Amino acid sequence: MSLFIDIISWIAILGGSFFAITGAIGLFRFPDFYSRTHAAGKGDTLSSFLVILGFAVYQLKDFESFSHDWPVLLVILKLLAVSVFIFMTSPTSTHALMDAGWEDKVKPEIGEGKPNHLNDDCGKF
Amino acid sequence: MRLSQIFATIAVVITGCILLYGVSDFPGFGDPHSPANAGVPGSESVSQYFITESYGDTKVPNLVTSVLADYRGYDTMFETVVIFAAGMAIFAILGAVGGGGQPREQSEEPFFVNGDHSRIIVGTTCRLLVPVIQLFALYVIGHGHYSPGGGFQGGVILAASFIIIALSSNLNAALRRLSEANYLRIACIGILIYAGFGVLCQVLEGNFLDYGLLQPVLLTDGPEMARSHSMLGVEIGVAFTVTAIMFAIYANLSSRGTLRDGL
Questions:
Q1: What is the CB-side half-sphere exposure of residue B107 using CA atoms within 13 A?
Q2: What is the predicted ipTM?
Q3: Residue of A88, A89, A99 lying closest to B118 (CB–CB)
Q4: A104 to chain B: which residues are within 8 Å by CB?
Q5: What is the domain partition of chain B in residue ranges?
Q6: Per-residue pLDDT tens over the stretch A52-80
Q7: In angstroms, what is the C-alpha Rg of chain A?
Q8: Least CB-CB distance to B121: which of A85, A92, A103?
C-alpha cells in the first residue's frame, strides 16, 4: 500500500513539475502576448493542481484509522481546498490579464498566409 | 534643484548617517550574549521571561499575540491610532487637492454585469470567492491567540475582500456594502473598543490596559483567562479600524477623493 501511494504521488508531483517547466518554456518562447499568457496560465494551473494532489495523496501514508488519524484527513482536506481555489482564481486572473491586453489593443501575431479575422470580427485594429 | 529639495536632501543624509551610526552599536544578529537575549547584569532577560512565563500569565499559546496585545498593549493601541491617522491624513489631503467637496452621484448600476460582458467571468469568480475570503478573515481575527494572525492581518484580509468587489465591478458596488459613513464610523469604533478596554480597567481602579482586573466583568475563571478574552476584544477593535481604513484608503486613492467610479 505504501509503495502504491508513493508511486501515485510521485507521478502526480513529477507530472506537475513537467507542466510547470513546459509552461515556463512556453512563456519564453511563444511569439506574442496572448500565447505567452496562455502558456503561463494553463501550465501554472494544472501544475499546481497536480503537485498539491500529489501532496494530498502522500499524506494518506500517515492515515491508518479514523479515530486516531483524523488530523491527517484535515490536512488532505485543506490541500484539496487550496487546489480548488487555485483552480478558480488562476484561470480568472489569466483571463483578466488577457482581457486587459485586448482592451489595451495589444496586437496578436498572426503568421504569413494564415487567415486573419481580426478586422472583420471587432474592428479594433 | 530648488531650495526645498536641497534642504530635504541634507535632512535625509543627516538622518541616514545618524541611523547608520546607531546601527553600528547593535549586537550581532542572534548573539546569545546580547542584552535582549541574556539580560543585563542583575536582572532577568525579558525575552526569557516571555518565553517561560507568558502562557502562565495569559493562557494564550501564541507568544506573539500575548506580547503584542498585553505586555505592550499600549504600543499596539497607538499603532492602531497611527493607521487611523494615516487614513485621516489621506482624506484631508485628497479632500483639499481632489474634488472631495463635490456632491456625489450614486449611479444605480447592477452589481456585476455593468453592461460589459467581459466582466462576467471575473465578477462571478469574485462573487464566489469573497464570502470565503471574509470567512477566512474572521477566522484569522478570532484565532489570533492560537495561531499566527490577529487583528492587523485579519483586518487587511477583510479589507481586501471589499477591494476585490471594487476591482471586479466598480467602486459603487463596494461602497454600497461599506459606505463612506459606515467605514468612518467603524474606524472610530475600533479605536474606541481598544481604548475602552483600557478605560474599563481604570474604572475598576487599576492601570490602563491591565486586563487581569476585568475578571469580574468578563466572568472568567481567573485573571489569566480575563487577559486572554480581553486580548480577543482588542484584536477585534484593531480589526475594525484596519478594515475600515484600508478600504477607505483604496476607495479614496483610486477615485482621487471623489468616491466616484474609481478604477
A1: 12
A2: 0.78
A3: A99
A4: none
A5: 61-254
A6: 999 999 988 888 777 788 888 889 999 99
A7: 20
A8: A92
